[in-house]
Amino acid sequence: MNERIEHLKRRMLDEERFASIEQAKIITRIYQENEDRSIAKKRALALKAALEEMEISIDPEELIVGNRTSGVRAGVVFPESGCSWVNREFEELPTRPQDRFSVHPEDIQQFRELIYPYWSHRSMEEGIREEYGEELKKISRVVKINQTDHAQGHICPDVETWLHKGPAVIRQEVKARLYMVKEGEEREFYECVLLVLDGAITYIQRYANKANRMSIDIPEHRDTLSMVAKNCRNLISRPAQHYWEALQSIWFLFVILQMESNASSFSPGRMDQYLYPYYKQDLRDGILNQEQALGLMECLWLKFNQIVYMRNRNSAKYFAGFPIGFNIALGGKDEAGNDTANEVSFICLKAQEEIGLPQPNLSVRLHTNSPHEFAQKAIEVVAKGSGMPQFFNDEAVIEPFQRDLGISKEDAYNYAIVGCVELTTSGNTLGWSDAAMFNLCKALELALNHGVDEITGEQLCEDFGGLDTYQSYEELEEGLRKVIDYYIEEMMKAEEVLEKAHQNYLPSAFLSCVIQDCISRGVDVTRGGAKYNFSGIQMIQVANLADSLEAIRKLVFEEREIDAKELLDALRADFKGYEILQAKLLNKAPKYGNDIPEVDNIGAKWAEYFRNRMKEYRNYRGGPVHTGMYTVSAHVPMGENVGASADGRNSGTPLADGGMSPSYGRDMHGPTAVLKSVSRLPESLTTNGGLLNMKFLPEFFDTEEGRNKFEQFLRAFVDLKIPHIQFNVVRKEDLLAAKEHPEQYRSLTVRVAGYTAYFVELDGKLQDEIIRRTAYASI
Amino acid sequence: MPASDKALVFDIKRFAVHDGDGIRTTVFFKGCPLHCIWCQNPEGIRADRQVMYLKTRCIHCKTCENKAFGHQLTWVRDDPELNHKYYGTFDNLVKACPSGAIQYDSTAMTMEEILERIRDDKVFYRDNGGVTFSGGEPLQQGEFLIELLKRCKEEGIHTAIETSLCAPTELVMEAAPYLDQIFADMKFYNPQDHQKYTGADNRIIRYNIKMLLESEAKNRVTIRTPLIPTITALETNIRAIASYISSINPDVTYELLNYNDLAGAKYPMVGMTFGMPDNTRRFKAHEMKKYYKAAMDGGVRNLITETQVKGGK
Questions:
Q1: Is B99 on the interface with A (CB under 8 A)?
Q2: Which CATH architecture fits B3-47+107-311?
Q3: How far apart are CA A211 and CA A232, in angstroms?
Q4: Do B22 and A588 count as a contact with CB atoms less than 8 A apart?
Q5: What is the pLDDT of residues A237-250, one digit of tens each?
Q6: Partner-chain contact A672 B124, CB within 8 Å
């Protein structure tokens, strides 16, 4: 890491993080000035105004510029999607348990006087609450519907087209189309696109001007600042032509996408693929060397850490560490089966190795023919302990993408990842990948307990039976099926309401420019303009479900070791006074994660049942609904909501983490057994993404022999067709020390779930969780 | 069914990455002709099945006290004290114990059952991983082992053994052709020391080492010495061993294993007492150097210095 990067990194981490209402004020003003216009138009005008007016800043040492606020890592208040939570929680932002932001007191006052009164009845959040709030609340213990107060995000835009055309050329093309369309929604759509592109061009111009001025004012940085100014100037009128310009262009794209949507997870996707031609050409032309290429990449890497996503208190619990999900996918096979990793892939790995911050969320695509050198470089970076890269498996993704989702061969091979682990094509999908989380463990609780919430005693759904009335294990499964069916029905109704609300409140003209087919069809991305339109439901949590069902099947119905009525009483009492029974549940029944087919298959069976039910539905945009198995950090709050379970888990304690991982401490036969168990979950279950966490101690990576064995482990992972795996490589002492002396460990990152966060910025409870995760040290 | 149809196995460890090349599954056979005072697998010494008490798992529910027959156990303060001299089985207690704190230390397994466990991780073995037979002394159940080795080779599974070589020479030589890696201990050069600390003479071991190092298997053999502070870890001992083995085969591979200071952990579980002082610590890297030097002074050319043996079973 060179000196410039060190300076930039330190300044960024030292800068205080504030909540910002600057854009909210602009948006509010534009809406008020344009009351008679459509929401789509108002939104386009508001984005344009923000791009023209927001205060901008440049660090004189930056080589890549641009941010959506003048300060870094600001928490942007975004009223169109919803800000009632800001109204409720503004004062506690600096002190809340997770993801804190400093607050200027005058901002609170302005927010309450100028912003909130206007939006309190106009935001999407309010609209949804009015129309469907009761229903959402009613199902919320089992189904958590996401994106009720913010834009969807989770999109891999068509960066390649953006680079090849740039805003000016896209603008010309849209203008030509506008000429052909005289009226209606399509015309308005094109008008909105032109507005936001005008804004984008002005925005880039402003950076060019600012850099130019600074190059005069700050002579010691004149050379680089005038290059920055030149890059920006070029990007106004023509597409990127060089590597540096391409990086700058990519960053402007993501900043503007964030300014439009303020959403989690706009992901660059296969950056090594689309950057390589620029890199190769500049190298050939002698205007770039490898060291410069790395330095520029590291500047972009820092940029990825300057945008964070401020969530409400509760959501911050589910997605702790404000993950913003700039996911980059490296390598992967082409249709001929050859690996596509190139020099830029190695530069990206090197940048991650040196910078070691939570963003971007770096992913490596592995497959049967992944080259040894590439795998080894990735392993070296994993060994550094930032939890990255995470690994995806082409052999578990490409085929099910075509078979189960009807994705074309070309698009399937070109898959990428958004956010944490959500799978997508590149540049032509609205995946709606975080549609909802379905708590299968809570469903089982209701099936065992006559539809009554074990924690609160409320009747949540119809009484389909209980553990004390089922005569056989089959009857119990039938009861579970009925509970699941009921909540699926309710969930899909809610999803439709949600999608309509997004169409009405959050049409996204700028995003539509960079999702294939939206422009050619003249349809906004929220209305189904994308080539592919999916919805993804997360199934939570197969490990606890399988372990609970197997314990009941074996100990209650098969061996009669435990009496059904007594078990029900024990669960209701959270095992108080039933410690012996709890010990039996824990120790006398096999557990998922130990390569025991009987129990693993129970998990697979129910996940498949759920997945197959999804085939009966189409989403509101007309696309298929599919499933994923990842929880991000939601296994903690989701677990808080589930009473004692028959796997021996106490009420309110976390569920298994990850999504495909076994419950903590239940996997007694090491990592190979875990992989074998996970491999029993068919790939079709995780076309929306799966997540498997593992933790290795760093000694494992100390020797070349250890790293080679690790590679063999990864190659077996590929052969077992598991979609995803990621590794935390940290010492327990490091974590304990970091908890004790956070000020000394500010840049220590850990893998939380599908993303990496600063360890010291996590809630203490979550820190303890991470410390407890099973460690596979030496054997 | 005759006893030889089953082997007594006290553990099968998957993802064993310190017991040979690649990713391996290690099968631990019960029973050992030696009883080294530093042994880290005390449950592997006796050839018969024993009952164990795992204190950390116990929830002190006293279920065992209620289910116990006659002299099976006495309850001392918070813990059951199992009577290891009890005549009959402990099936009743093992079954009743809800937490798994009372367990047998081993399982009698058929050849097919063991093979099935070995096959479980076949996808991880790749080019050079496979199965390692350890113990105890795997050659104690030699006929069974040789049959098992043949079956593994038929299935293309890479095989390794960790052995004391305290076994009949015919068995050793019969097993050797089916082994891809042989890790053989030579703890002492001097027979009296060997007798004193392991309970057996080492002349048969020395002879077996000689036979192996002169056989066609010689390039697949690694001789190992565990460095036990003040006992085997003496430069004179290391030099003598090195000189002996290199005089037979100058290209012999020799490895010095650092002391495992967690070795004592399992003794209380099986009602045994650990013979080493508690404060015995493993050697630091710089302390190992003099032993490396002694080995090279003794004439060893292929010395493994990097490997750190950790944990053991």
A1: yes
A2: Alpha-Beta Barrel (3.20)
A3: 9
A4: no
A5: 999 999 999 999 99
A6: yes
